[in-house]
Design brief:
alpha/beta; 12 strands; globular; binds ligand PBG
């Protein structure tokens, strides 16, 4: 059956029909909103490169979470900006650490908000690297201990899920072991499994004040040229006990999302990162693109590639569109 019998345009003439045959449907349930919490009171610092995003002190974060929840987005991913940093990031493990305070405050006001805690040292170390420095290098095995302690501390504060983003070898297994030892066997781990050394993280590092003071992250984050290696990373994380695997960034890595989903059939998350969001916003501000339309196209493409969960600074904007509010 070829032309003129086959006319693919037949299914495109009517909106109802187009909707019926839509293969990929983005849902509010897929979305996670990242938020930045900082020390102090009444802080609401705009992040210049990420319009609409702020560094928020705890009480303002709670108010923001209410807006997020009302939009239909029921999950947030928290990043902390502590008042003080140290050499190995142990400030991230304190009972009264900034994210720990934030988790308790959110849970007290919005009990059903699902809180995912990012686990990494780069926001908490004076040098901005994701682990402890020994002989000028990020030391893998000693870093596993601070990551495990941070995870347990965040779970104690009430985090619903732990999401390690550091890219140390063996961290999923070590964190799983520490969580289980502390009776948090029901807390899932979402591993940033294929996390690339990406220029797209630039705006985030302004937001989280986490840029490395020397060198770069190429000795632990992945080379953007590799995707077989991404499958090895994912395979190891699954073997170590990851419940959800992640590809990050998303937009330039749709092929990696596709390969991971096809190969492992695991719940798969994709992180539509800060630089991807900033590019969208910058072009939108100049009226070079229709921002809302391109945003939905990007998110739908990430889902079409195979992501079940999309972490995005566009979560609330997308939810409003999905709910017919904008
Ligand atoms: C921490 C971390 C980073 C991001 C998430 N967790 C930055 C980095 O690795 O430098 C980036 C998120 C974004 O760009 O939106 N390791």
């Amino acid at each position: 059956m070829i032309f003129p019998e086959t006319r693919l345009r037949r299914l495109r003439y009517n909106t109802v029909l187009r909707n019926m045959v839509t293969e990929t449907k983005l849902s509010v349930d897929d979305l996670v909103m990242p938020l930045f919490v900082c020390a102090g009171t009444n802080v609401r610092n705009p992040i210049s490169s990420m319009p609409g995003n702020y560094q928020l002190s705890v009480e303002n974060l709670v108010e923001e979470c209410k807006k997020v929840y009302e939009s239909g987005v029921k999950a947030v991913l928290l990043f902390g900006i502590p008042a003080e940093k140290d050499e190995d990031g142990t400030v991230a493990c304190q009972h009264n650490g900034i994210v720990q305070q934030a988790i308790r405050a959110i849970k007290a006001e919005i009990a059903d908000m699902y809180i995912i805690a990012d686990v990494c040292n780069c926001e908490y170390t004076t040098h901005g690297h994701c682990g402890t420095i020994i002989d000028g290098d990020v030391d893998n095995d000693s870093t596993l201990e601070t990551l495990a302690a941070q995870s347990v501390s965040l779970a104690e504060a009430g985090a619903d899920m732990i999401a390690p983003s550091d890219m140390m070898d063996g961290r999923v297994g070590r964190i799983r072991e520490a969580l289980d030892e502390n009776k948090f066997e029901k807390i899932p781990i979402m591993a940033y499994s294929a996390k690339y050394a990406s220029g797209f993280y630039g705006p985030f590092r302004e937001a989280a004040e986490s840029a490395p003071k020397f060198g770069n992250r190429s000795t632990y984050q992945m080379n953007p040229a590799n995707s077989d290696e991404a499958l090895r990373e994912v395979e190891l994380d699954i073997a170590e006990g990851a419940d959800i695997v992640m590809v990050k960034p998303a937009l330039s890595y749709l092929d990696v999302i596709y390969r991971v989903k096809t190969e492992f059939r695991m719940p798969t998350a994709a992180y539509n990162v800060s630089g991807e969001f900033s590019m969208l916003k910058a072009a939108e501000e100049r009226d070079w693109i229709d921002g809302a339309r391109v945003m939905m196209e990007i998110l739908t493409s990430i889902k079409r590639a195979g992501a079940d969960i999309i972490i995005t600074y566009s979560a609330v904007d997308a939810a409003n569109i999905l709910n017919g509010i904008k």
